[in-house]
Amino acid sequence: MLKIQNIAVLTSGGDSPGMNACIRSVTRSAIYHGIGVYGVVDGFNGLIKNEFKSLTYHDVSNILQRGGTILGTARCKEFHESDQREIAFENLKKLNIDALIVIGGDGSFKGASIFSKEFNMPVIGIPGTIDNDINGTDYTIGFDTALNNIVQAIDKIRDTASSHHRVFLVEVMGNNSGILALNAAAASGAEEVFMPERQEDLSLFEEKIRRAIAANKSSIIVIAEGDQIGGAKEVFEHLKEKQLTEKVRVSVLGHMQRGGSPSFKDRLNATLFGEQAIVLLLQGKSNLMIGIANGKVASQNIAIAEKITTPKNMDYLKLIRKLSIY
Ligand code: F6P
Predict the structure, then answer these.
(1) Which CATH superfamily is domain 146-258 in?
(2) Residue 174 near ligand 1, beta carbon < 6 Å
(3) Could you list the active site residues?
(4) What is the mean pLDDT of the chain?
C-alpha cells in the first residue's frame, strides 16, 4: 500500500443530498488507515484561498443524515487559470496533502483532472449532483433524494390539480438534461414530459391540453428547466397565445428539489463511494471516477465523465404516453 500522509476532500458545483454522508465516509475511512484529513471550504475556491478545516472522527459525527454539504460548495471560475491552480498546489503542499478527493459533477472533474496531471497529484472523483447527467456512472449522489422530493411535490400538486380539474406545468431542475424530468414524470404518473433531448410537436401538446380540459380532469406536465422551448413559464406563454390557459397553472419547484435529508440509496452509495476513494488512493490509483455500473460500485478513468447527451431510459417516454389517455 502507498504511504499517504494527508488527503483533502472538497465538494464542488451544486450541492446534493448525500454529500455529507460521503464526506463522513471519506474522513473515517482515511482515519482508519492512519491518514489525516482536511476538508476544503467552498470547493476549489478554498484550495486557492487556503481555506482548509482539519477533519477529525467527531467532526463528521451526526452529518450523514443532513442535506447540503458541511464544507460549503461553489462553482470556481478561477480554477480554470493555471496561475490559480499553482497557488492551490502550493497551499496543498504547505499542509503536506498528498491527494485530493473531489465530490461534484463533470465540470469539477475536468478541473481536477488537469490539476492532477499538472502537479502529479493523485485525484479521485466522486459523482455528486442531483442531475445524474455524468457519463460513466448510472447514478450520482443526490439524484435519488431529488427524485423523491419531486415525486412528493407532484403528489401534492395532483391533490389541488384534481380538485380544480386543472392542468399543471411543473418545472423541474436538471440543467441541460431531462433525466430528472423523465424519471420523475414516469414515477409520479404525469401525463406528459418535456425534455431538452427531444423537440416537441406543440400542436399535439395543445391537443392533449384541450382533451384534458374537455374531460374536466387533472393533468400534470413535467417540464425540464433546460427544455428547448424554455421552462414552464415559456410553455405557459405559448399556451396563452392559443387561449388555452384558463385551466392551466405553473409550478416551478426550484431549489427545494436539492434539499432535505438524503434517501437510503443516497446515504448508502455515498458511504460506499467515500470508502472506495480511500482504497483506490492506497492502491496508488489516480484520475479515476467512482460510480455505479451494472448495479455495482466501479471506477473508470475520470476522462469518461462527460455530460450525457441522451438519457438511458428514453423508453420511459413511451410508457408515460401509454399510461395516459390524453
Ligand atoms: O447541477 C445541479 C443543479 O441543481 C441544476 O439542476 C440546476 O440547473 C443548477 O444546479 C442550479 O444551480 P444554482 O444553484 O446556481 O441555482
Answers:
(1) Phosphofructokinase domain (3.40.50.460)
(2) yes
(3) 131
(4) 96
